[in-house]
Amino acid sequence: MAVISVHNLTRRFGNFTAVDHISFDIEPGQVVGYLGPNGSGKTTTIRMLLGLIRPSEGEANVLGFDSASQSDLIRANTGYMSQKFALYNDLTARENLKFYAGVYGVRNGQRVDELLEQLGLDVIATMLVRTLSAGWRQRLSLAVAIVHHPKLLLLDEPTSGVDPTARRAFWDLIYSLVAEGITILVTTHYMDEAEYCSRVGILNFGKLLALDTPNNLKALLPGKMWEVFLEGKENEQADRLLPLLDVMGKTEGVIRASLAGDHLRILAKNAITRKELECRFKAEDIHNIRVESSIPVMEDTFMSLVSQ
Asked: What residues does the ABC transporter domain cover (predicted)?
């Protein structure tokens, strides 16, 4: 049985449709990423799954319970980590965790110590939360979300505002929880984080554009990816890339071209060859370039789906 089953779920706020007739199933033991920019409807979806707001249309079944009429049962068996850390700044890490254990009715005093050790929080257990870095607060919030042994974990942009090292460590923690049998739905606007998920849903303007494995989603690209590099002094390249971008924007067969740091990233129809791209630049008197084939990344898929 699916852990989450959603059918035509819709939420309107006046004339604004935040979530627009989405349908999907999440099976046990999966890490499903819900990928989209800010304002795409990710948090509204999470709030409907938890029964915090009612859908305007459609239905959601979570852990066998109806989200509209059995929200108390859902929240009792689900861990939720919101965008804002719901921690008490004037309590220590241990005191925060102990407090929330009590809120969830966890009477086993050893559970707090187990979580502090499991998530590597024992080294900051006696420190006040207000003194902790964003990475430590993030870990502590995760501990709070799983203190009651939930079957499902909903993480709403949990890595927003933390450094790349802390983000990678957090995903290691996520997979350790999956190994314990927890199913996880995580929202994010970081494209690279989608690569860590077993399945990814791409959301934009409230619509679920696709839901599949990262590899299957990248296979949806209507062409081939290329990268174009300029040979020369690094400090001159930023200005010199703009004419290249303009050339590609006017080239037949090029679907999309964009700046990517010190080079261009190009999606072109499959029939376009490296030699044709090189000749197009030379025809515009642009030389000293290097064109290389590239593998798709999740951002390529996202931009392609959104543009469609």
From this structure: 4-230
